[in-house]
Design goal:
Number of strands: 0
Structural class: mainly alpha
Oligomer: single chain
Length: about 80
């Protein structure tokens, strides 16, 4: 029981220090506001979109039929 109090005190002090440090770091991140568009991330004149079209050049679909339960039982025999 003698050793329990110093351990509990050390854990509480550690949690308090961790809370203070992470609160300070978190407050630094609050300086940026949330943007609804990506315009603010692009320098003026550095990006010119000439064709607004998506073109899929490599689309491949493969289908495999699943065996029905009756076919699985016959295959096991």
């Amino acid at each position: 029981m003698e050793f329990a109090y110093p351990i509990i005190i050390a854990i509480v002090v550690g949690l308090i220090i961790a809370f203070v440090l992470t609160s300070g770091l978190r407050a630094e991140l609050k300086s940026v506001h949330q943007a609804t568009q990506a315009n603010i991330y692009i320098k003026q004149g550095s990006f010119n979109l000439s064709n607004e079209q998506d073109l899929y050049i490599c689309t491949r679909v493969e289908k495999t039929a699943k065996p029905k339960p009756q076919q699985q039982q016959q295959a096991q025999r």
